[in-house]
Amino acid sequence: MRTDLPERDAEGYLIDPADWNEDVARALAEEENIQLNDDHWDVIRFMREYYEEHQVAADARFVIKHLAERMGREAQKKLFELFPYGYVKQACKIAGMRRPRAWSTG
């Protein structure tokens, strides 16, 4: 794990989501071998806004609903194309969320 990033847990998730910024997201995405594009940023920004409002990470179904406004039925497929190793493993980590304890994937 990179040492120039904010404090993280053993799995690489931020300890404090308030330490997140877009540079941190880019570095975390690089570790996950993801080249961030506009669709990734759409998901990440939605997740950050949801976190700011609710103080919890958005469940995947909320992100899929958000994407469906633009993509329709392809939203769920698209989410898993953007983050091929999983919503929790990659999207939550890159968006600066703590590691969710229990999770529904959608």
Structure description:
It is a single chain. With 106 residues, this protein is an all-alpha fold. It has a single domain, classed as Arc Repressor Mutant, subunit A (Orthogonal Bundle), CATH 1.10.10. It contains five helices and no strands. Helix 3 crosses helix 4. The longest helix has 17 residues. The chain is globular and about 40 Å long. The termini are far apart. The model has no long low-confidence stretch (mean pLDDT 92).
Distance between the first and last residues' Cα: 29 Å
CATH topology: Arc Repressor Mutant, subunit A
Number of helices: 5
CATH superfamily membership? DsrC protein, C-terminal domain
CATH architectural grouping? Orthogonal Bundle
**Helix-strand sequence:** HHHHH
Radius of gyration: 13 Å
Total number of domains? 1
Average pLDDT level: 92
Unreliable stretches: none
CATH top level is Mainly Alpha
Molecular shape: globular
- Biggest sheet descriptor: none
The secondary structure category is mainly alpha
Pfam family, one: DsrC
Keywords: Cytoplasm
GO molecular function, one term: sulfur carrier activity
Subcellular location: Cytoplasm
